[in-house]
Write a structure and sequence with these properties.
Largest sheet: 5 strands, mixed
CATH architecture of the largest domain: 3-Layer(aba) Sandwich
Structural class: alpha/beta
Number of domains: 3
Distance between the termini: 55 Å
Strand content: 15-25%
Strand order of the largest sheet: 4-3-5-12-6
CATH superfamily of the largest domain: Periplasmic binding protein-like II
Number of strands: 12
Length: 300
Amino acid sequence: MRISPLPPLPCLIAFEAAMRHGSFTRAAAELHLTQSAISRQVAQLERFLGKKLFIREPRALRLTVSGQNYAEEVQRLLVTCAEATETVMKRKGHVELTVACSSGVAVLWLTPRLGRFRAAHPDFHLRLIVNDSLASLSEGEFDVGIYYLREGPPAGLAARRLYDEEVFPVCAPRYLAGRTLRPADLPQEMLLMLEDGQRQWMSWQAWLAQNGQAEARLEHMLVANQYPILLQLAMEGQGIVLAWRHMIDACLREGLLVPACDASASLGGGYYAVWPQNRLEPAVARTFRNWLVQESSEGT
């Protein structure tokens, strides 16, 4: 039996995105189309239905009564279709998951754990995007991200806290030869610093200020724009670097690094799982996000 009447699928997708965003422009950005293309597809759907779906206001879209009723059903059906499609693709081994994170998270925390996830979900194809700036990523580029945040997620993203922030200085065991420094001693040491571009992360100046050394003058500094490079320098005994609890735990367990000082500090931030809020979330993304929460709760 022929299923009829059926509107064009691209029109339904454009309508659903415009409904969620309340904007043709933002829907176009999500779907990688032009604003005029989204507008045309919605207009085509309205002609097909013989009903107006949106009241077009100068700075927003507002659903009509017919639009509201239709939107609820269309979204439900698109979600069902997406989940059914994903199930079939999973059986063929073609479910792709795109994960974004900073270089520090990728090297120190995620890659040592990915083997466990892949063993549990061998049908998932993983794609890793390493980008230290969450703000530079668009919502369409990734399914789940792992990032340090101090003031909550950027607009358009939802977030789930994984770890609280705790920052303390570390160095190679041979650098201090068994000594433990006081915060007041640190400004005279070789301090390994992340460049100013990463301002969300705690700086040495902020760490020292929280430990009673706000006026300290730093005598020796080595600056790099990627945290894993600073960590490697510290492991080679070339200075002291600030370390984030949980990110650095494996290096401490293996004896590659040791605390240089008993003090620690926090700016109230933490590490979060983040994901696009205004996009239909695939089941694979929820599976990975739940796995992240489990990994963080186990603390291994």
